[in-house]
């Protein structure tokens, strides 16, 4: 017989330490799993979804002027004492009240600029070509603003603040074709859409994201005067038009220079010459800001400071608009976050949503006492919600196909998993085998001797 | 007997008439798209001098879009490199897309919103979704709303479902699809015309899922897009075939043109373009033969005349609105009349949309079948009765 | 008498109603300098001034700002961010040392600004204001400014506040340099033109032809804003150096250096700007010209003296649409132009050059070489700004000199060094140097370059990374009557004034650039290591090997079989 090898003839590793080794491998793996999970997930802080879905526009509905149906006789005029409406007739009152109740309809008015607590108004004096002579090189703009726009702007103080900028341009060419007839130069109504030549006119934008409304006083060049807009309908033309939500234009034909002056010297006009144009600007501004027009039969003027009920109506309309938009934006944020699982939701977004909800609550709380304060809360809720919606950190991760994920993890986890799983299975089989043997051994203790050899 | 047979026949006639009413192509014209402003996003994603033609493509699109009326403030131009003032350019300050060098695309009035290193995937996606840094300037943002039509043009080097940016990163078709999906959710567009000129361009729009997008690309999967010609003095190719062809078509239209998207797509042939240009219109809800090119390429802005001072306005808000609405509807009916008139003038079969022809055929077929059926039933029944 | 009195009383009525004249002024000028090597330096300057910070109220809820000439795109940006003064220069090309100048601009884009101090604001908020201002201004001029929220460099030795006010003493500048090699193109000129009252339609703005401006040796677009005595002044300048000799040769001639306004700009001055107070064209009469020259037109011109120079001046308004002003100079007897020998070209008092020494991409020496051509010792301010990944070892700053006189060596008199903070703050070095007369000095310091993160490499990383040029300021000699007080070096520039400001061009520095396929390599490597070793280690620990005696086993089995 060959010499027997001196290698071990029985397993050297004793049972408990082998188990400990296998289980410690597994323990490290299981301890590491949460770390891996934590470092590969995207930060998605919790948004108050319940609160947001609970906030709906209906709940924010405003207690408007209480029930006044058409035709109902006015029982107690003192109810409306706070509206400061000079009630001429019942009809006037009903129309006024209907305006106040008509919160939804003006939302569809596409001319009105979107609500913002701060607007930038730019007044430009545009000379088509000041080198051909008789151009307007200056204007008394501060006096004109004070006279024609200050009452309106001051009465809108509860709603908006305004930043006004004025400028004069000396070369503002037109890009449309001009027609000619006996009275002068005409512009077709259809061409008005291309009148504002934004390519060549330097129309300033705002440094912040406040909306800008442009009011342009266009002075045609000497050879193109007088210039007017030809309308197809029988309506008399005012040589002015508005671009909805953007601004307005008034074409101003200066009086021809008197024979004493040189025909080509620049004109200096007193502020009164611009009065009709600025009254038109005021009208246009009213339209663009959504000022409800007074009833036809009202006896007070259409220019100047606004009546109390007009401001009140505007406050309510804008309040409704701001509230609805902030609620819509909050719903949209929640939906977006739910729809795109790859999108990061950071602290700024979470804070923005909470603050917006808080502002809405404050708006609702303070509404009965002061609608204009409620409006400022709603405005800040709107700005907070849209800041959160357009937050630069809320960007979805780039597309990473699943095959790439498998390709990266499989070569790493595969060779790790196989020996560990196999070891675990072997342990388990061994444990089962041992249990069976134990039971058998307990059954037949004396016969166990022989088995030990194997 | 005869009465009963007539009763069956008349019932079937009624059914036939109803079917006719339902199936005939309706003469209703899809209402002019509800867009109030047009925007353009023009992206050239490749750098280096030898990609001159990509810069030239984008600039030619820029010039065309400006000519047709979209103002600079509503155009976002992204150029990954500077070729006009590049020291290798023998004609300083100019970019040409044709070797006859008649039209200088760079011109004397140009605003490049993003250039050089700023043109990358992250900036592009942020621009589309509106999530630019807070301090980002107004003119560089895409301030669109739910009534804006956007023309997105991308050119560069691409492949199967990706587009290469700056030679070191890529954007995948899924990312663009998600960006458009996010824009739809935020109400940032009304309709999008997506045009891409790269190799395997058609794969780039295969993953879109949000509605109201019409997409067109220059070549199908596993196909290259080719350049058109080179200028020996500049030393590189100056334009690509697909873009060159599209621009040739766009040169012929002006702000009031009635040429439709279908007209444009019908001109795509393998012989002209050198590859299989594709169109994807399943997400678009209007028929292509009723969508004008100027819906995307033209600058639209509504105006409203102001009343003279002293003119008493109509009282109350509702009456004014009705007046405005009335004016709008009268204008729309004018458009309708014009369009129906135009449809009737056009001879059928030449430029008619395929859908209309199919529908007519179907309706005719059903009608005939019902007629025959009615006659057969009447005869068999009557004969049986008789 | 009564009549006289009544007339006197009525006199005010006889005066026409006075309309508030706009107090803003606008003036423009063009200065042409023929250079000794046949090139022409043209500098257009457009200056608008008006009352500043005069916001007026329109009721209680509206404020108004009125401007006629000052561009509102710029004024709204300045008032919103509360900027006291700023200088923005975009320049491409190289300014040759032989061209006479008192100040050459930085290569690329440079923005220096002084912000109005605000007590309620801390440093972080002020830095944020600066950051937003750079973004807004960069967007206005389509410069592609991409500056992260980094801390800015604040070299107060090299830039002195020129405005007025007590805060001027304490205001420190913010500086941003983007050393692009080609910083100007038509997209920067377009917004530039829109800031001018007459834009490119009238006046000297009509001469701004991008096809010629950017076809030269060197181009500059500059925007400057200063406040003085309640008035704000915006000054726009366009500089360009062009080569008429090359153009003549391209057109088939032998190479003449004659030029005129039309031949330089390919434009005519047909329309005068109606709001320009003065609109002048100046031509510097060449000194030391070997051949005779003629300057035309001769009518309507004025000859002035400016120091040692003679300048011929015309008003553009004297031209008419049919005969626009076309200032020209010609050398009738010179055909062709002979380039003068370098020794005959004018030499500046000092000249400077960037030096980079070393091998490999990880470390080297960076510095400047200064040549003092003058007969007297010079004191020079040296300002450097390097990106954060150039980590200099300022303790080893060396000054070497090779001078004709043995006794004097260049030295560093004062030093201010702000070390970089990675990814947040660039390196700023400011030094006061002493240069001996007629000497060449080298100032060098060793540096190490950092590794960048994988995502920080730009798209063409192997091209190199641009490092801004050095700023070298030759100070006027100290007045001999001044006492030997220790003047704070940061006030030297303000007290003594700069005789010459030079910038070295941008340089490209190669950084160690990794192989960008490394992430995939790392994944594969890790997976291989894991695959090969994890399994073996695990099994070795867990499995046991023992010898099975096959023969014994067979015997045991046979025994069992026998039993059964």
Automatic annotation (TrEMBL), chain A:
InterPro entries: PtdIno-glycan_biosynth_class_S (IPR019540). Pfam families: PIG-S. Coiled coil: none annotated. Residues 433-454 are annotated as: Disordered. It is a multi-pass membrane protein. Pathway: Glycolipid biosynthesis; glycosylphosphatidylinositol-anchor biosynthesis. This is Phosphatidylinositol-glycan biosynthesis class S protein-domain-containing protein. It comes from Leucosporidium creatinivorum.
From TrEMBL, chain B:
Pathway: Glycolipid biosynthesis; glycosylphosphatidylinositol-anchor biosynthesis. One of its GO terms (cellular component) is GPI-anchor transamidase complex. Belongs to the peptidase C13 family. This is Peptidase C13 family-domain-containing protein. Residues 1-31 form the signal peptide. One of its GO terms (biological process) is attachment of GPI anchor to protein. Keywords: GPI-anchor biosynthesis, Signal. One of its GO terms (molecular function) is GPI-anchor transamidase activity. Gene3D superfamilies: 3.40.50.1460. The active site is at residues 157, 199. It comes from the Eukaryota.
TrEMBL record, chain C:
This is GPI transamidase component PIG-T. GO terms for cellular component: GPI-anchor transamidase complex. The keyword Signal applies. Keywords: Membrane, Signal, Transmembrane, Transmembrane helix. InterPro entries: PIG-T. GO terms for biological process: attachment of GPI anchor to protein. Residues 1-20 form the signal peptide. The chain crosses the membrane at residues 518-537.
């Amino acid at each position: 017989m060959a010499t027997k090898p001196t290698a071990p003839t029985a397993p050297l590793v004793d049972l408990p330490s082998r188990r400990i080794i296998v289980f410690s491998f597994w323990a490290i793996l299981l301890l590491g799993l949460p770390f891996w999970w934590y470092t590969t997930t995207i930060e998605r802080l919790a948004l108050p979804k319940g609160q947001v879905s609970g906030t709906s526009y209906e709940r924010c509905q405003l207690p408007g002027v209480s029930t006044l149906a058409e035709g109902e006789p006015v029982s107690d005029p003192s109810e409306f004492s706070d509206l400061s409406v000079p009630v001429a007739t019942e009809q006037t009152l009903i129309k006024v009240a209907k305006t106040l109740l008509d919160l939804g309809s003006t939302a569809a008015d596409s001319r009105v600029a979107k609500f913002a607590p701060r607007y930038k108004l730019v007044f430009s004096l545009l000379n088509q070509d000041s080198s051909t002579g008789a151009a307007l090189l200056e204007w008394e703009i501060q006096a004109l603003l004070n006279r024609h726009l200050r009452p309106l702007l001051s009465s809108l103080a509860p709603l908006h603040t305004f930043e006004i900028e004025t400028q004069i341009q000396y070369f503002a060419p037109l890009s449309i074709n001009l027609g000619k007839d006996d009275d002068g130069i005409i512009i077709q109504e259809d061409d008005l859409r291309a009148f504002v030549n934004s390519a060549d006119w330097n129309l300033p934008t705002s440094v912040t994201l406040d909306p800008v409304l442009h009011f342009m006083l266009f002075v045609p060049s000497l050879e193109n005067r007088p210039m007017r807009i030809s309308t197809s309908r029988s309506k008399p033309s005012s040589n002015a038009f508005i671009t909805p939500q953007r601004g307005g234009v008034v074409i101003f034909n200066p009086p021809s220079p008197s024979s004493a002056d040189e025909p080509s010297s620049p004109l200096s006009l007193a502020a009164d010459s611009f009065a009709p144009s600025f009254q038109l600007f005021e009208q246009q501004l009213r339209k663009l800001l959504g000022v409800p027009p007074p009833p036809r039969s009202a006896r007070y003027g259409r220019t100047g400071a606004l009546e109390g009920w007009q401001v009140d109506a505007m406050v309510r309309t804008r309040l409704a608009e701001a509230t609805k938009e902030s609620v819509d934006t909050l719903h949209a944020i929640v939906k977006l976050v739910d729809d795109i699982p790859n999108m990061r939701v950071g602290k700024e977004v979470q804070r923005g949503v909470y603050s917006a909800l808080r502002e809405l609550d404050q708006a609702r709380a303070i509404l009965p006492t002061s609608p204009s304060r409620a409006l400022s809360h709603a405005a800040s809720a709107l700005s907070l919600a849209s800041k959160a919606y357009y937050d630069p950190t809320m960007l979805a991760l780039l597309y990473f196909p699943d095959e790439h994920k498998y390709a990266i993890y499989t070569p790493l986890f595969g060779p790790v998993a196989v020996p560990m799983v196999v070891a675990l299975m072997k342990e388990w089989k061994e444990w089962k085998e041992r249990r069976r043997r134990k039971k058998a051994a307990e059954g037949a203790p004396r016969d166990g001797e022989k088995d030990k050899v194997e | 007997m005869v009465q009963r047979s007539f009763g069956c026949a008349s019932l079937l006639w009624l059914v036939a008439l109803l079917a006719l009413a339902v199936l005939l192509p309706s003469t209703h014209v899809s209402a002019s798209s509800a867009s109030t402003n047009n925007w353009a996003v023009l992206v050239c994603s490749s750098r280096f001098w030898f990609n001159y033609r990509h810069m030239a493509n984008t600039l030619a699109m820029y010039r065309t879009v400006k000519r047709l009326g979209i103002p600079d403030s509503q155009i976002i131009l992204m150029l990954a490199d500077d070729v006009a003032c590049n020291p290798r350019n023998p004609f300083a300050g100019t970019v040409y897309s044709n070797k006859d060098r008649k039209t200088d695309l760079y011109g004397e009035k140009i605003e490049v919103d993003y250039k050089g290193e700023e043109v990358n995937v992250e900036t592009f996606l942020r621009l589309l979704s509106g999530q630019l840094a807070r301090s980002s300037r107004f003119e560089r943002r895409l301030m669109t709303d739910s009534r804006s039509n956007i023309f997105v043009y991308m050119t560069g080097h691409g492949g199967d479902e990706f587009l290469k940016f700056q030679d070191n990163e890529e954007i995948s078709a899924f990312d663009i699809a998600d960006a458009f999906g996010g824009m739809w959710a935020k109400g940032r567009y009304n309709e999008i015309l997506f045009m891409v000129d790269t190799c395997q361009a058609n794969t780039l729009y295969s993953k879109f899922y949000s509605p109201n997008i019409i997409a067109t690309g220059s070549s199908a999967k596993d196909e290259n897009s080719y350049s058109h010609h080179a200028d020996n003095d500049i030393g590189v190719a100056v334009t690509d075939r697909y873009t060159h062809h599209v621009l040739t078509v766009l040169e012929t239209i002006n702000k009031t043109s009635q040429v439709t998207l279908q007209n444009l797509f019908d001109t795509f042939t393998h012989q002209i373009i050198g590859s299989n240009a594709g169109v994807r219109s399943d997400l678009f809800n209007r028929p292509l033969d009723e969508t004008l090119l100027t819906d995307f390429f033209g600058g639209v802005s509504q105006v409203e005349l102001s009343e003279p001072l002293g003119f008493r306005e109509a009282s109350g808000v509702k009456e004014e609105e009705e007046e405005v609405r009335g004016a709008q509807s009268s204008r729309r009916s004018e458009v309708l009349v014009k369009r129906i008139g135009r449809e009737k003038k056009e001879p059928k079969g030449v430029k008619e949309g395929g859908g209309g022809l199919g529908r007519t055929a179907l309706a005719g077929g059903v009608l005939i079948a019902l007629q025959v059926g009615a006659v057969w039933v009447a005869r068999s029944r009557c004969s049986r009765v008789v | 008498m009564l009549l006289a009195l009544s007339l006197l009383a009525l006199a005010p009525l006889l005066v026409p109603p006075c309309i508030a004249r706009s107090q803003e002024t606008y003036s423009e000028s063009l200065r042409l300098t023929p250079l000794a090597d046949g090139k022409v330096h043209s500098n257009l300057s457009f200056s608008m001034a008006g009352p500043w910070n005069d916001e007026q109220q329109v009721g209680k809820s509206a404020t108004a700002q009125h401007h006629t000439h000052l561009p509102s795109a710029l004024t709204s940006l300045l008032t919103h961010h509360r900027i006291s003064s700023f200088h923005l220069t975009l320049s491409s090309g190289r300014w040759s040392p032989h061209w006479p100048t008192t100040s050459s601009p930085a290569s690329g884009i440079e923005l220096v600004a002084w912000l109005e101090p605000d007590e309620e604001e801390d440093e972080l908020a002020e830095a944020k204001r600066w950051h937003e201002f750079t973004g807004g201004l960069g967007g206005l001029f389509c410069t592609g400014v991409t500056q992260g929220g980094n801390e800015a460099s604040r070299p107060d030795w090299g830039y002195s506040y020129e405005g007025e006010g007590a805060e001027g003493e304490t205001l420190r500048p913010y500086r941003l340099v983007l050393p692009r090699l080609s910083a100007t193109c038509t997209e920067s000129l377009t917004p530039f033109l829109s800031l001018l009252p007459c834009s490119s339609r009238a006046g000297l703005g009509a001469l701004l032809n991008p096809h010629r401006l950017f076809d030269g040796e060197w181009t500059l677009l500059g925007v400057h804003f200063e406040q003085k005595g309640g008035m704000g002044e915006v000054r726009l300048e366009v500089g360009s150096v062009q080569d008429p000799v090359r153009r003549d040769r391209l057109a088939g001639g032998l190479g003449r250096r004659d030029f005129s306004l039309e031949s330089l700009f390919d434009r005519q001055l047909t329309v005068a700007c109606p709001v320009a107070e003065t609109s002048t064209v100046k031509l510097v009469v060449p000194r030391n010209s070997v051949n005779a020259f003629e300057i035309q037109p001769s009518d309507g011109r004025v000859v002035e003296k400016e120091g040692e120079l003679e300048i011929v001046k015309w008003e553009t308004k004297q031209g008419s649409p049919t005969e626009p002003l076309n200032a020209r100079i010609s050398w009738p007897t010179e055909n062709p132009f002979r380039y003068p020998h370098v020794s005959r070209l004018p030499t500046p008092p000092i000249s400077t050059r960037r030096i980079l020494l070393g091998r490999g991409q990880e470390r080297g020496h960076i510095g400047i070489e200064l040549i003092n051509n003058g007969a007297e010792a010079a004191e020079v301010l040296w300002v450097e700004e390097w990106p954060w990944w150039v980590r200099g070892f300022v303790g080893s700053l060396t000054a070497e000199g090779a001078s004709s006189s043995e006794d004097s060596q260049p030295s560093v008199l004062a030093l201010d060094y702000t070390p970089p903070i990675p990814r947040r703050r660039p390196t700023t070095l400011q030094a006061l140097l002493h240069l001996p007369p007629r000497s060449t000095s080298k100032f060098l310091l060793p540096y190490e370059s950092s590794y960048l993160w994988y995502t920080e490499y730009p798209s063409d990383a192997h091209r190199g990374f641009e490092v801004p040029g050095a700023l070298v300021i030759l100070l006027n000699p100290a007045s001999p009557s001044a006492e030997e007080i220790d003047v704070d070096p940061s006030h030297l520039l303000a007290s003594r004034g700069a005789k010459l400001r030079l910038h070295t061009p941008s340089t490209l520095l190669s950084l160690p650039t990794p192989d960008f396929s490394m992430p995939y390599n790392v994944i594969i490597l890790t997976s291989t290591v894991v695959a090969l070793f994890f399994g073996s280690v695990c099994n070795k620990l867990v499995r046991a090997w023992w010898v099975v005696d096959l023969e014994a086993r067979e015997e045991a089995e046979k025994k069992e079989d026998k039993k059964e």
